[in-house]
Amino acid sequence: MKALACLAGATAMAAALASPALAQQEIAAGANATGISNVNEQMKDVEDAVQDDFDRSSDPSRFGNPDRVQGLFGSVALSYIGRTGNSENQDFTLSGRLSYNQAPFSQSIGILLEYGEDNNGDTDTEKTYVIYEGLYDINDRFYGFALGRLSTDALADDPISLDDGDTFADLDGRLERDAYFGIGPGYRIIMTDTMAWRVQAAVGIRYTKTVNVIDPVAEVLETDSETGVGYLLSSRFYYRVNENFFLTNDTDYLTSDSNDTATNELGLNFKMTDSFATRISYKTEYVSDRAIRTDNTLGVSLVYGF
User: Fold this and answer.
1) Same domain, 119 and 166
2) pTM for this one?
């Protein structure tokens, strides 16, 4: 129980180190015609990206058994944009999540649909994503979990979905189907007010259907399907140096017959003042079957509120 109290303090500290509240701006009359609305939307995109960056470090699940809303709840969001005039196209997205929590057991399922048409009226985007997460707390430290993901791209083998400047050869390696479902145990190794570390492992089934370009000149391709066992290892680490600085390190490794995928993200989070917060992150992503296997991303997020 003392450990849980310490973890509550750690969670509160993490939230305190998150970015200050971003100001909300009401759009003035005439903003659309003068282009102010467009700039404001771009500013909001930046603010949302920064907030998401901070939220990754203050994830309450990192620190133990967070208090969860009990019962059944969910949400649905829909967006449609249709354009006429100089551009004739449309985009549609639908997102929904349903969750159910009861005592030590929690689970959620989410779905995302993306559909779009280009200026010729041809479908250039048709993607579906489904995710599932389930967790059962056996005690304060030990838990079991299940997770699953399915993504489909109906146009993965269609040149119409290529970006400007891409060629037919760029279809090679694209995934029409990518699915994984696994179950396994998790354990919270360290649970104090200054340090938290949990690890988990899963074994499951991974299915992929990949586009294989045979002849880019004659535009000949085929699709290859593969089903195999997939093994997942994950680590979530948090360490508070002092009241104004903490670091996190998140590591995930998935191996299967299809490929090996590994990611590691180190985050340094600073609270300069009550109104100034900074996060510096360095993410490395490794995929074994890419031409350039490793991608590295340096991110810097700063927020000053007054």
Assistant:
1) no
2) 0.76
